Amino acid sequence: MANARTPRGLPGATIKYAAAYFIVASLAGKGVWVVRRVVQKPARSSIANRTWEIENPRWGGGELMNYNWHEAQKRAAVPGRRGPGGFVLLFDIGNTHTHLGLATSKRIVRHAEILTSDWQAGLAERRVAEFAGAQRLEGAVLCSVVPPATPLVHASVRKLWDRPCLELRPAAVRLIGIDYPKPATIGPDRLANAVAARHQFGAPVVVVDFGTAVTFDVVNSAGNYVGGIIAPGLSAMTDYLHEKTALLPRIRVREIEGAVGKSTEQAMLIGAVHGYRGLIRQLLGELKRELRSCRLPVVATGGCARLIASRLREITAVDPLLTLEGLRLTWLENHAEVS
């Protein structure tokens, strides 16, 4: 259960207000929270409609966030949360893998992955059918960075279940704003990540997605997606070294101790893993300075997220299902229009 204490600097704080602090902190729902002070108190406001400054100790250093119960309920009670009675099928189509999810209106209940190349090879449809099983589907939602695979997914969903398949595009995004010159050029997986991160951690927030490329996506304090960073992925870097040199081997990326390699493989791992953490740390520092935010939750997802985040204090949380969760939330926002 959440813990709260009466903040300093609020003269005359009574038991009534202390109880209110406790309730608001409990509703924040992210571990142990401490309410510090009232940041915004509208005229004739109820306790729930005030904006509170709260702290989550897991962020360390007394970092704070603002929390408004009414706004949080708006984010949580997305349209359709009571609606679909069946399951929704989620497709996150990446360059190497297609991540599959099966979700209810409340949560993701099953997930798996197949090779994205299976779509072109004619193998994916059977594997998706086996994954979904006999569940009753309300529909499906996808995000794709592989255009040739996208129509194949639509066709498979229609053939197997005769259900609609929503494609995540900027027009379908409603839980965040988009403040970006050409929204159509944003990778849909990046928008899905931003939606889920904003929903779970508030704003501002940064997502680091470790895939074939590593992407940083930024939601500012106003709750708008404003852009990000793209850099080579860790495996892409190590594979490139192997492919472009005569003697450097292909390595399996894993944790490595020490800073002096005693073999070619150790030297490559040190450069890859320790060096990559340095890249991530530096870029996050630049983002924090540009956003001028003393509190900046950073959510990591993707293939090597746990490995890299394990020794990076800058990363707040690792969520391997973040993109799928963004797809689930997008479906809930739009399902009435595509059903």
**CATH class descriptor name of the largest domain:** Alpha Beta
The termini sit apart by: 39 Å
Report the strand count: 14
Spell out the helices and strands N to C. Answer: HEEEHEEEHHEHEEHEEEHHEHEH
Structural class designation: alpha/beta
Proportion of β residues?
15-25%
CATH architecture of the largest domain: 2-Layer Sandwich
Nearest-angstrom radius of gyration?
22 Å
Overall domain count = 3
CATH fold label of the largest domain: Nucleotidyltransferase, domain 5
Shape: globular
Helix content: 25-40%
CATH superfamily of the largest domain: ATPase, nucleotide binding domain
Structure at a glance:
It is built from ten helices and 14 strands.
What does this protein look like?
The chain is an alpha/beta fold. The chain folds into three domains: 15-76, no CATH class; 87-170 and 327-338, ATPase, nucleotide binding domain (Nucleotidyltransferase, domain 5, 2-Layer Sandwich), CATH 3.30.420; 178-320, ATPase, nucleotide binding domain (Nucleotidyltransferase, domain 5), CATH 3.30.420.40. It has ten helices and 14 strands. Strands 9-12-11-10-13-14 form a six-stranded mixed beta sheet. A hairpin with an 8-residue loop joins strand 2 and strand 3. Helix 6 (188-201) packs across helix 10 (322-338).
Fill in the keyword field for this structure.
Nucleotidyltransferase, domain 5; 6-stranded mixed beta sheet; 10 helices; globular; 36% helix; disordered N terminus; 5-stranded mixed beta sheet; 339 residues; alpha/beta; single chain
